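User: I'm putting together a teaching handout on how sequence relates to shape, and I'd like one worked example. Could you take diguanylate cyclase from Paraburkholderia dinghuensis, show the sequence you're using, and then write out its predicted structure as tokens right after it?

Assistant: Happy to. First the sequence, then the structure tokens directly below it.
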Amino acid sequence: MTSKNIASNNAADTDMEKRIGWAMFRHMLGNAAIPLLGSGAGSLLVAGAFFWRDRQTIAIPWLVVVYATIVIRIYLTRWFRGFVAVHGFSERAGNWYALSVGLSGIAWGFGALLLNNAPDVICAELTITAIQAMVMGGAITLGAVMPAFFAFSIPAILPMVGVLASSGEATQMVLAGYSLIFFVLVSLVARNFNRSLRRALRLKFENEALVDLLTERARELALRANTDGLTGLGNRLWFDQILESEWARLKRSGAPLSVILLDVDHFKLFNDTYGHVAGDACLKQIAQVMKEVCRSTSEFVARYGGEEFIVLLPEVHAEAMCGVAERIRTRIADLEIPHETSQTAHHITASLGAVTVQCGGSTTSADAVALADEQLYRAKALGRNRVEHLAWGARDTPA
């Protein structure tokens, strides 16, 4: 593998990691309301128990701190969403937002102070359970971004562990040890969730990239199947499909459809005299002229075979069609590609047969091409380097 390929693969991996990082952060941001609601409900439950035991003096300040952090977190979440909408995702700003989750962790860490003033076992156990529940919930709601999980869980649970361990009571010390084990296990759950989500996102993005690649390859194959390799124009297969589609569309309204068939005069002599390389270059120049004349998105140009080209002009009347055909003929002559063996001129010329038909009645799309072909042979019979045209009604029947 070359150094260029290695650099390309490294850049692709970096882009993938950035995309995964932003998706994981978006997952956390999308779940921001859940921990905030849990924090509000859990703190009310704990504070309510202390109110019931007449411990308002400690419960009210803590409740105010918790709700203040909820308000700040709501503001920061809205600000970050607006920032991303304007400036796009920034890893630095994302990290700062993740660390701001620590405000809620600190607020719940202050809840450990309630343990020192718990009036009974029920209030103490309710406080411990609420703090552990918040940490456990964070494994899922914050686990997509591990810095955010640790920013919340460490300041939320360690103060409680410290208070329990410093009490000197055997039961409290056991609870402190249990809380540490609980924190380790929940951290492992958060890590596994993080890895699973990362793997799922990687597979999702890789599958999307594969689908995009296959779609692009299919589009390229379809384009190659419908494109003439030499001139870049549509090929006969593509033209026949477009003709049938446009005919079916225009038949419903009886609108006109014009077809111009072009043949390069004495092209076999040109090839025999100047060689096939010069012949290919000549056809490319003629194709370019036809592209430039037929610029409208509703005009279809194709190489019909050999030195023949064809133009489809939906909803174009005879007068406008003749103008297009004459411009093509003139522009080809103006190329002044030398053709000393031509019996028409000393440069490349073209004969064109053009027909306008009213779609409907007994006339078919094949009739339109056949009539254009008849006019082309008429142009050749009358001396070449000219346009012959015909207007054909829907009720007429080709001979």
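A couple of points you could highlight for students: The beta strands are 256-264, 300-305, 308-314, 350-358, 387-392. The mean pLDDT is 88.
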